[in-house]
């Protein structure tokens, strides 16, 4: 169930500016609602309705108050009256649907919220609530469509993102479950299991599953590249290199395999070959992760300190991986030294040391917290990995 305040959704909608027979009374009741003085607000809107029984906005706001008070039967009646007086009153169908949802009247909720999205197709809260209702109806594919629309309209809303992720996860799980049922011995099953292990940092298990998948589909594009990445994560560099080369034999256009093979060549000290492979991948996909860092390392191996410094300068500004940024500062300081830019080298090395100290402090703090929570256990430091 969505933990979204009714009034929070209401304030996201355009405020009502209806012509009321008693503007001062309407303003006072609305202000009381804003301040959470719900009994005062309810009394105010009720008085307005008594004086002006055809005033739809007063019924609407009274419905909001009753919904916030969890008096859903009363809020439903108020919203229905508002809609009878003004069928396309903005927000009324949405909040009617929310009240129906709170009472677990899912079909009625869906009808009401769908009416809101039909009348106001650019209303992100309405699309979000349609997705929430569809999730409760166990219709995840329809929920995902509604929540995708909500995310297009408001891409930074955390509630939309939460429900959207949940909907897509359910769709994904259902799709995989059907796949397992249809062909439990398919290479795709092993690939899915491998990917799940990889996401959980169980790299040895992921490698075994990828190897099983490759036995069943040895020429399937992508499998060798993914296997190579897991070998790389397990620090099995020769195996990773062989896997990436196999991938390029199957699919010469696999940009990631080419790029990762180039990064390995740089780690092996072959700047020329590494640069050639990385630059070729860059032409196809300019925004590869850690691109400037790896190109900078290749240029350093080739003795091109100025070109390397240019890449590292971009890396320290744009790379979001703290460990890569830390190493980029170190490499930048080294490049500046080779260019006899002494003061800039000193500054870069100081920044590197600062980041390294921060990382050491965080690691020590994490270790101390773990030991405090688990006094009978010890945990080894995580292995360091070179970025690729």
Helix % is: over 70%
Order of helices and strands: HHHHHHHHHHHHHHHHHHHH
Strand segment count: 0
**For the terminal residues, how far apart are their CA atoms?**
41 Å
Average pLDDT score: 90
List low-pLDDT spans. 11-17
Radius of gyration: 30 Å
CATH fold node name of the largest domain: Serine Threonine Protein Phosphatase 5, Tetratricopeptide repeat
Query: How does the major sheet shape up?
Result: none
Question: Which architecture of the largest domain would the CATH scheme give at its second level?
Answer: Alpha Horseshoe
Give the percentage of residues in beta strands: under 5%
User: What's the number of structural domains?
Assistant: 3
Assigned CATH class of the largest domain: Mainly Alpha
**How would you classify the quaternary structure?**
single chain
Question: CATH homologous superfamily name of the largest domain?
Answer: Tetratricopeptide repeat domain
Bulk shape:
elongated
| Helix segment tally | 20
* Helix/sheet category: mainly alpha
3D architecture notes:
This protein has 388 residues and is mainly α. It has three domains: 6-178, Tetratricopeptide repeat domain (Serine Threonine Protein Phosphatase 5, Tetratricopeptide repeat), CATH 1.25.40; 183-288, Tetratricopeptide repeat domain (Serine Threonine Protein Phosphatase 5, Tetratricopeptide repeat), CATH 1.25.40.10; 290-375, Alpha Horseshoe (Serine Threonine Protein Phosphatase 5, Tetratricopeptide repeat), CATH 1.25.40.10. It is 75% helix and 0% strand. It contains 20 helices and no strands. The chain has helices at 6-12, 23-34, 38-51, 56-68, 72-85, 92-102, 106-119, 124-136, 140-153, 158-182, 187-199, 203-216, 223-233, 237-250, 255-267, 271-284, 291-301, 305-318, 322-338, 342-373. Helix 14 (237-250) runs antiparallel to helix 15 and helix 18 (305-318) packs antiparallel against helix 19 (322-338). The longest helix is centred in the last third of the chain and has 32 residues, at 342-373.
């Amino acid at each position: 169930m969505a933990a979204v305040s009714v009034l929070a959704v209401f304030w996201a909608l355009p405020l009502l500016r209806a012509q009321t027979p008693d503007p001062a009374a309407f303003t006072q009741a609305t202000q009381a609602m804003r301040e959470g003085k719900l009994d005062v607000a309810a009394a105010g809107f009720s008085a307005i309705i008594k004086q002006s029984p055809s005033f739809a906005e007063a019924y609407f706001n009274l419905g909001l108050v009753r919904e916030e008070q969890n008096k859903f039967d009363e809020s439903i009646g108020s919203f229905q009256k508002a809609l009878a007086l003004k069928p396309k009153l903005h927000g009324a169908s949405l909040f009617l649907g929310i009240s129906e949802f709170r009472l677990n009247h899912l079909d009625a909720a869906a009808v009401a919220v769908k009416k809101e999205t039909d009348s106001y197709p650019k209303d992100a809260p309405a699309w979000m609530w349609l997705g929430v209702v569809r999730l409760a109806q166990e219709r995840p594919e329809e929920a995902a469509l509604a929540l995708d629309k909500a995310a297009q309209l408001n891409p930074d809303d955390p509630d939309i993102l939460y429900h959207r992720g949940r909907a897509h996860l359910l769709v994904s799980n259902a799709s995989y479950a059907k796949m397992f049922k249809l062909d439990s011995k398919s290479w795709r099953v092993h690939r899915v299991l491998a990917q799940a292990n990889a996401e959980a940092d169980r790299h040895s298990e992921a490698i075994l599953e990828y190897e099983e998948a490759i036995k069943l589909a040895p020429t399937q594009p992508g499998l060798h590249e993914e296997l190579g990445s897991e070998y790389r994560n397990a620090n099995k560099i020769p195996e990773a290199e062989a896997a990436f080369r196999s991938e390029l034999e199957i699919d010469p256009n696999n940009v990631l395999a080419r790029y990762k093979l180039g990064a390995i060549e740089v780690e092996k000290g072959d700047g020329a070959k590494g640069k050639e492979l990385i630059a070729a991948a860059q032409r196809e996909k300019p925004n590869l992760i850690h691109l400037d860092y790896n190109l900078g390392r290749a240029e350093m191996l080739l003795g091109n300190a100025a070109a390397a410094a240019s890449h590292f300068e971009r890396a320290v500004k744009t790379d979001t991986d703290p460990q890569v940024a830390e190493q980029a500062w170190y490499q930048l300081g080294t490049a500046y030294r080779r260019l006899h830019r002494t003061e800039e080298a000193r500054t870069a090395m100081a920044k590197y040391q600062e980041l390294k100290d921060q990382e050491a402090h965080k690691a020590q703090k994490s270790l101390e917290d773990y030991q405090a929570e688990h006094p009978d256990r010890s945990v080894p430091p995580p292995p360091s990995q070179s970025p690729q």
